[in-house]
């Protein structure tokens, strides 16, 4: 199919090689071009649903990491207050 689009093969030659009708090759070419056009249009309009899901997951994980870091700092400060300064504290 790509050979037809690149002009390396005619539709008739591609049909003979694939042992299908010229109409089938023509239909495949049309479907391929339509899908490509739709994909490019979708790309211009914004992020895919999967990209949106991944970005939301990244935001959730970033927030969870921040909260865990804060909790660890609070725990460390409270432990230092009860036990006195440690040799490893800065």
From TrEMBL:
InterPro entries: InsJ-like_HTH, Trp_repressor/repl_initiator, WH-like_DNA-bd_sf. Coiled coil: none annotated. Residues 4-46 form the Insertion element IS150 protein InsJ-like helix-turn-helix domain. One of its GO terms (molecular function) is sequence-specific DNA binding. This is Transposase. Pfam families: HTH_28.
């Amino acid at each position: 199919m790509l050979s037809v689009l690149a002009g390396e093969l005619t539709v008739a030659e591609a049909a003979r090689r694939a042992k299908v009708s010229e109409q089938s090759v023509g239909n495949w070419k049309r479907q391929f071009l339509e899908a490509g056009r739709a994909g490019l249009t979708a790309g211009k309009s914004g992020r895919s649903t999967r990209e949106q899901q991944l970005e939301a997951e990244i935001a959730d994980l970033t927030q969870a990491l921040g909260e865990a870091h804060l909790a660890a700092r609070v725990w460390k400060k409270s432990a230092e207050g009860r036990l006195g300064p440690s040799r490893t504290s800065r």
